[in-house]
Amino acid sequence: MTKYARRRALVVGEATGIGLAIAKRLVEGGASVLLTARTEEERAHAVAELGSAARVVTPSAVEAALTGETAAAAGEAVIGTGPGGDDAPGFRGGVDLLFADAIPTARPLLPHIEDGGAIVLTAPTPCPDAVRALAAELASRGIRVNAVAPGCIEAPGSGAVPLPPLGRLGAAEEVARAALFLATEATFTTGARLPVDGGLGRP
What we know:
- The protein contains 6 helices and 7 strands, in the order E-H-E-H-E-H-E-H-E-H-E-H-E.
- The chain is α/β, with parallel strands linked by helices.
- A 7-stranded parallel beta sheet has the order 3-2-1-4-5-6-7, sandwiched between helices.
- Strand 5, helix 5 (128-138) and strand 6 form a beta-alpha-beta unit.
């Protein structure tokens, strides 16, 4: 499957659940993926799940990965990567897709997003006004900004919660599909916030 061939994507803020589900779909579709993971355990798990089409780094090493520096130059110890090690996919020159948990996470990375790219925010916040404001700010660069608003998503160890109108909990994979739709197919949509909550909330 080459649906996302030649795409270069950065997934930051969360390496488990929704973030990992997004990265897996991108890799399966032929994209090169840079994913951040905070702990050694998360990095090892992500590498095992994603393979050599992805590079997994600590949050502090993102800038180095995007500018072509080596792990040593970034002051990092061993950085988790795919089987290709530091020869895993290169991202020098930027990415065209950014998936971030929140606007404060995304903002420092804006210079690395190619004009005409897309940003999708993946946490239940921010508020719709904040999404629209960032979308307006980046419209001159042709960068679309949208958000998914997940709710009632099943997570390991989560307790019983009231079910939404659809009668079941959602899966991270379902949020990933919505996020990728906004990033790659909704090409005339920006400033939108899409609930992915089984009908619990409203836009």
